[in-house]
Amino acid sequence: MVNPFQYGSVVSGDAFCNRTEELRDLRRSCDNAEKLFVYSERRLGKTSLVRSVLRELPQKKFVAVYVDLWPTDSENSFATTTARAISLALASTPKQVLDTARKMFRQLVPSVSVGEDGTPTVSFGTVTPRRPEIELEEVLEAPAVIAAQGRRRVVVVFDEIQRVLEYESDLTERKLRSVTQHQPDVCYLFLGSRKHLIQKMFLDKSRPLYRSAGHYPLGPIAEQHWAGFITKRFEAGGKSVAAEAIHQVYRLTEGHPFYTQLLCHVLWELTEPGAEARADRIETALRIVLDRESHAYTMLWESLTGNQRRFLRGLASEPRGVKPFSSEFTRRYGLRSASNAQRASENLVERDLVDPENGSFVIVDRFFRLWILEQHRG
Questions:
Q1: pTM over 0.85, yes/no
Q2: I want to staple 330 with a disulfide (CB 3.0 to 4.6 A). Which of 166, 171, 193, 335 is the partner?
Q3: What phi-psi label fits residue 334: left (phi over 0), alpha (psi between -120 and 50 degrees) or beta?
Q4: What would you report as the CA-atom Rg of the chain, rounded to the nearest whole angstrom?
């Protein structure tokens, strides 16, 4: 039996846990052609969630365009990556893809290749001399053109939207605002995971995209939803799992999908066919996970300053929501002053090790938090 718990990649179908309310909300956003920013911690399942929404959209009524911005590093790569996604959403055969790309994008030079499985791949060059503003406008206006011609809603997903902050200028942000706000038949879902960058992009009055879209924060999955999901996944493979074991998993992972699926994956492997996964096996499963990550965590820990380590140790040791700049916190963990704690937190946020959360911070990697606690036990 293949292990039923998946982690580290986009999941779908029976491997996708709940999110019923979120699926319904985002489907309504597609129906209403809203502009919406969906954000959360890393690995919380934003891409899996939105991909599930796109798969359920009827093709007769919608054109779904998914754009992964992670590989992009400039206005040029943003334009070509978006044009590629639009072309592939509209056509399936190599000739159709090439014809579509040539018709839609006059500022770009398309070429199509075919993979071993027969799937077409389109790439773009640019005309000379380059005109980045015109290229961006043409690409960003394409969804509205598609909606008008085909009388269908168009849904465009920009995944890892925070990447545009790393471009040399804010041209892409400015064009996103100026062009997309005049597209009543196009839904835009902006996905982001680094909260401090997202806040800078959408909540800073000096940025072009300030208040340009609604906000939809995505949180962990509640324990009751995990309970039914984990139980069904074990039972489908001829095994069972104790309710207390599920509770222990949830307590350790705080309902975060990636870490919950990973710990359940290991627990599944430790459980014999026909047997029950009990709570007393959770410690063994966690030990396996931490041993696998020990070298990476040690290297990471050694790269931190003393105050950064003290700050992390405090976050790991205290209940969620602790006030890390309070005199009690700084005294207890040897930070000596609120300014020292502030500097440590800023550096840790930049390194993507902690995320701001309601006046406090959360350690992004749940197992790194447990590793820190283990290293400083006693």
A1: yes
A2: 335
A3: left
A4: 23
**Neighbour tally for 288: CB within 10 Å:** 15
Pairing assessment for the beta strands 214-217 and 35-39 based on DSSP bridges = parallel
Which tens digit of pLDDT belongs to each residue from 199-253? 788 888 999 999 899 989 999 999 999 999 999 999 988 999 999 999 999 999 9
Question: For 19-217, CATH number?
Answer: 3.40.50.300
Classified by CATH at the fold level, domain 305-375 comes out as Arc Repressor Mutant, subunit A (1.10.10)
Asked whether 249 and 267 are in contact (CB, 8 A), the reply is: yes
The DSSP-derived string for 227-261 is HHHHHHHHHHTT-EE-HHHHHHHHHHHTT-HHHHH
Q: Which residues touch 247 (CB under 8 Å, ≥6 apart)?
A: 223, 279
With CA atoms as reference, report the closest residue to 166 among 69, 83, 67, 82: 69
CATH 1.10.10 residue spans of the chain: 305-375
Structure tokens given for 95: 């000739």
Q: What is the pLDDT of residue 309?
A: 98
In the chain, CATH 3.40.50.300 covers 19-217
CATH of 223-295, one of 1.10.150, 2.20.140, 1.10.8, 3.30.420: 1.10.8
